[in-house]
Specification:
about 80 residues; mainly alpha; elongated
């Protein structure tokens, strides 16, 4: 599975873009989580970021499944 992900990161622009966005959202979410208290806007942003990350992860997994279905399996 990691091989396919590495191949996609190296050769699929859409997958690479999704992965970069996912990383950016994760970093911002981490910075929010480290705060002791969140403002109402930050709480909303936290929820929004979690949803965006999940959407990106789902899309990346769809691309991975598609790539696996076209990759010959070695016995």
């Amino acid at each position: 599975m990691e091989d396919i992900r590495a191949q996609l990161l190296a050769g699929n622009d859409e997958f690479r873009r999704l992965a970069q966005e996912h990383t950016q959202y994760a970093q911002r979410l981490d910075s929010l989580i480290q705060k002791k208290y969140l403002s109402e806007d930050e709480k909303l942003e936290e929820v929004r970021l979690k949803k965006l990350k999940l959407r990106l992860k789902d899309e990346m997994e769809r691309i991975e499944r598609h790539a696996r279905s076209y990759t010959p399996h070695v016995a």
